[in-house]
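Async update (no meeting this week)

Hi team, since we skipped the sync, here's where things stand on the single-chain job. The sequence we agreed to prioritize is pasted below, unchanged from the tracker. I ran it this morning and attached the output directly underneath so nobody has to dig for it. Comments welcome in thread, and please keep replies under the output.
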Amino acid sequence: METRRERYALWITAAIAIAAIIFGAIQYREVQRLRILGEVARQRAFFNLLSHVENMEGNLAKARASSTPAQRSAFLTACWSHSQAAQENISVMGMTDVDLSAMQKFIAQVGDFCLVLSQKLARGDAVTSSEWETLSTCETAVKDLARALADTGASAFRGGSSQAGMLPFGLAASLPSNDDAWLRGFSEIDSLVQSVPSPAYDGPFSDRALESKPLANPGPEISPQDAERVALSFMNREEHFREVGVTTIDGAVPAFLVTGTRDDGSQVSVAVAKAGGAVLWGMDQKSRSTPQLDLDAARQAAAAFLDKLGMDRFIETGWRKPETHGDRVVFTYAGTAPVTVDGKPVQVVLYPEMVKVEVALDTGEIIGYDAMGYLTNAVSSELKPPLVSASQARAVLNPELNQEGEPRLTVIPLVSGRAVMAWEFRVTHGGDTYLIYINAMTGQEEMVLQMVIDEAGSLTM
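Output:
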């Protein structure tokens, strides 16, 4: 009897052991499968990156060799397009052990510089000799980058097959790429791109544009106690915070960060500028429940909030529901200021002076606020009467477009980073809606934006 029980116990133990081995093997195989998929995605992104960088090099060479502005503009635009795609592939490579930001910045600046020159040629302006010299320097640097990427790929995959080997029971073998070669190659590339001087130009990725802006109208220094008082007043919530902390934020706009912690652990954070005590931004991290409000109710809550702050001169310019948060909506607002046109005051929409307000759709509470655009721009102080009338600007439009409503004066930020006054026309064509901006000083078409309106928001692209 004991022998039978022992035999049963052995069978059960053996069965458990076999099941554990099978389970472990399955888990190991799944982990290896995910590693292989990640490696395949990384290799695909790398070789796509190499291809786009090589195409950038080719288009730069063709742009410098072309004889007509139209051809040069086409090649420069193509280089910009490949730079955009290259940046996307850098983002999905997943190189957590290597800092690729310098390479991404370099590729962005080269593409951005090409776009600025392309737009210059399209307007009929001449590209200066110094700009062509800068473009030549960019071409040489891109050629060096392409060669370094090719060498890195050759080293990383040397001796490895294109597919991972398979061990008994279908277990995946080691991945083919060499991590040491990846790290060594990208470290050399980082040194290479950082040694290349950045092109001097006006664009969104230029060194000047990437620098954070200071406050447009700073005030006297405030104390941490003042910042806490401003933040708690701004939160405007009749609730108890078990803890309130004040820390500092360094940068172009030094600030105090005031954080209130509730009993449930959720926090409300408000950044208050040290110079003057203006609220830069605020955010409530509390979880939200099922939405109860519609868009109009949320819009009224946002407008009432701005009115309470004394910002009633701001007008709504768009809205969106974040993709990962359907329980809130973000409204964007632009400031306005008067300018005299033909002896009459006309309101100008100031797009650089932007404010964002985020509203929770369960209670209508304000859970997000961002006034950095408004506080770091002062275009309202630089307004001048337009030299081009609305009717003159309308004559520049494509006659096939259908105008909706009356044009309005605006100040818009250009790709170069400059702000210009422009007439904004809302037009339709082929079922699509566009915003076209005609420079109010020169009469040139400056920008064309397509409006996308759906259940997720009203956006321009």
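Quick observations from my side:
The chain is about 40% helix and 25% strand.
Residues 390-460 form one domain.
Reply here if anything looks off.
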